[in-house]
Records
---
Amino acid sequence: MAALVGDPRARSRVHRAALGVRDVLTNALVAAERPAVAGQVVDAVDLAGSLFDPAGARVIADELESLALADVLVVASPTLRASYSGLLKALLDHAPAGLLTPVVAVPVMLGASPRHALAVELQLRPLLTELGASVPGRGLALLESDVDTGVHRTAIHRWLPGVIPDLVGLLDARRRLGERYGAGRTPPTTSRAAYD
């Protein structure tokens, strides 16, 4: 299980929230008797210097390819101008079509106000599905102030029961497709209907 943090501030509240979601999901999958290990974290701010530099293209490609190897990818961003960050967009603009086809992605967004809660569904989910990811349940919207106080952990645990059955189902379906089509081969469809 990996995480991608799209905050222009290093080691931010978004970073802490992404790690919290990744760890809770890892524990929930282990409890559901599914193999899961909390793994790699890519902080997009660490790649900012390479995003618009042709010499950095290989670095960006390597990081994106490593994220595509995860079964589950938590993608977290602050809510800026009612959407995900420009840094996250700039990084994912480097992604080839279908990069996240083998991945189940979990969108997480932090906002300053409850008014921003819809951005995770209206903005970040479509970006992830455009890249081929399957997105289980509802995305998670958290308040920035709750990360400072630790209250976000309660919000994560309230959100979890609504997402874990769909997440487990998607992972099981992807494993069955992987067995059917062989390791390293892409199934013939990425539509959600294929997993139902």
---
Amino acid sequence: MSPPDFSGTYGSLLVGGLVAAVLYGITALQTVVYCQHSATRDGWLIKITVGSLWLVDTFDMAAISQLIYWYLITNFGNPSSFSQPVV
């Protein structure tokens, strides 16, 4: 009996994580450029909104990174890991 093939599952997880990382990098760059050039002219509501969105995106990227590490490194080749919550 051969082990199940999870290459499609792991591959889509990795590709999705890489796309999310690229988009996070673009968001981080835009946040830095905003802080350097436009933050002095905008009101406090816009500044808080930009900062809050950057923090939410940072948390999301950390969660995606943890998920990828859990499945591709810690539990690689363990098909029962899909039935367990990510720690």
---
Amino acid sequence: MSTPRQDDDGLSLIEVIVYVVVLGILMIVVTMIFINTWTAQASVASQTQATTRGQLVASQFERALRNAVDYSIEESGTVLKINTTFTGTRQCQGFALTDSGLAMTITSNNAEQPIADWPIWQDRVEAITGTTPFTDVDSTTIAYAFNAVSDSAPVRFTGDTYMRNQRAGMDGCWE
């Protein structure tokens, strides 16, 4: 007499459960790798943007003061007013670090324009806690300090810049 043949093809219930659990664990690991990579990329992009913004601001300070014939620091060191050697509409340049960001104005004569009316040029720039944004180092040099804000950590910028010209007064600017 012959015994009936059992078919061993296919998977048992235990094998299916083990495969599903292992596959689930692998999918969680792969998903976490993608999420961490995406988060790190976003952080690096934000830091890069903040660095670029800070370099732009610092170079604008340095260019304006390098071409200055006079300057003044006001409002407890949060406002820098410059009379430059540029002619026409770029002669008078002003920078003000406010709660909304860095305000800037560039015109031929800002005698009566209130700082509150200056447009915000860079909105993710702020003062470094406990420091003064603009400091008079000597009669021709200023020090600046600010943070360019990013989504992770701020990028700190500090430096000194000086006038190449002799002081000639604020004639035509800020009077």
---
Amino acid sequence: MKPRWIYSECKIYVCNFIVSYIPILLVRLFYYRYIMRYGIGKGSCIGRGCKFNGSGLLSIGENTVINEYCRLDNRASIVIGSNVIIAPEVKLMTADHDMNHPQCKGRERGIVLEDFVLVGAAAMVLGGAQMKKGSVLVAHSLLTKSTEAFGVYQGLPAVYQRQRAHDHAYGKGQPTQ
């Protein structure tokens, strides 16, 4: 065994089973930023009980909230924009197996959640998906592909439902009913 591999595994273990349950956000953020090397913007927070698969490869913009018990499989890059809300128990899964490969070879594909995205409780986003600005993934849905800006998606797999009213999100008027 190589010492670097052991250090990496211990760092992830401490992150997932000790640090993630510390009730003080500033302590968790310190560990995530300086030990795990996650880019976390000002005003953003990660709830207790969140699990990760590696160090680095996670970038979070400003004023983003990742609620409790989410799983961020950052074996490939996860880029989360600003003003994003990720509800509890969401899974962002970057790694899977290619069922079209004769040996079901493992693969890793990144995930991008642009600004003002909302991901509902217990939803799952698979590798290769990109949620465009302001899009919504409804609770308990499975996103397998990219979305349209301000689109609302729901189902297993998630399909387009409607356009989200968005003028109020940028201070350009009142919310529509």
